[in-house]
Amino acid sequence: MDTILEKELKGSVYTLWMNEPSSRNALSPAMVTELTHEIDYVINTTEIRVLVIRGRGDGFCSGANLASFSKSGNPGMELEVLRESRALANMFCQLNALPKPVVCVVHGYAYGGAIGLIAASDYILADPSTMMSFSEVKLGLVPATIMPYVAQRMNEGKMRELMLTGRRFNAEDAIDFGLISEVTPSISIPEKLTDLLGSLLEGAPLAQGICKTLILETRCNHSFHNMVDHTSTVLAEMRAGDEAKEGIAAFLEKRKAKFNRRHEL
């Protein structure tokens, strides 16, 4: 029996394939539950260094599962609707804060909530045929749970335009908007992905995790004074850690650094 979320571990790279082409890999409650469980697994599995998210079939993900939304206005459904909304929001939050590199490989289409997966990731490879849109307003909805992560990548003016009109845009546009990192033909994606993963795996895992945390913290409403204290403390701790010792020694000795999967400060 096919699973709606395929898992593939190769070395220290963990790939999740959304595998429900019949629903266009929609973010159904079941899909959200599976994604949340697997993201938590990645967080707690030291051997996994990088997470890759992809979609089976003719597109990446169509966003919300509208079939599950159709009964939302029925009497007595309020708590269930709120529970599902919070589960979706928590999944995006967990992905965004994952202390390991996250790569999305996108093709075909990415609508609504699918852009939340993209915006909460670190590097996005896309096929040039990919079409995207914030389609929520055309359905009487709002892109609420994905908005904090889209705002990390897009300027407010472009968000207003695209979210209020719901108009479609292509992968090249998405690069200009800051949503996608690189557009490459589908035939070249395996090679590009291999090169990217190689680069990510050369990084020190603890340093990568702390780097992501600092990026998120600098976007919060911290005063510059507090951030000076915080960032200088983090740098001092990292300089004294095993990863820095190995990385600097390798540089001076003109060799490739050999980072353990988990170094301690």
UniProtKB/TrEMBL annotation:
<dbReference type="Pfam" id="PF00378">
    <property type="entry name" value="ECH_1"/>
</dbReference>
<comment type="similarity">
    <text>Belongs to the enoyl-CoA hydratase/isomerase family.</text>
</comment>
<dbReference type="InterPro" id="IPR001753">
    <property type="entry name" value="Enoyl-CoA_hydra/iso"/>
</dbReference>
<dbReference type="InterPro" id="IPR014748">
    <property type="entry name" value="Enoyl-CoA_hydra_C"/>
</dbReference>
<dbReference type="InterPro" id="IPR051683">
    <property type="entry name" value="Enoyl-CoA_Hydratase/Isomerase"/>
</dbReference>
<dbReference type="InterPro" id="IPR029045">
    <property type="entry name" value="ClpP/crotonase-like_dom_sf"/>
</dbReference>
<protein>
    <submittedName>
        <fullName>Methylglutaconyl-CoA hydratase</fullName>
    </submittedName>
</protein>
<dbReference type="GO" id="GO:0003824">
    <property type="term" value="F:catalytic activity"/>
</dbReference>
<dbReference type="GO" id="GO:0008300">
    <property type="term" value="P:isoprenoid catabolic process"/>
</dbReference>
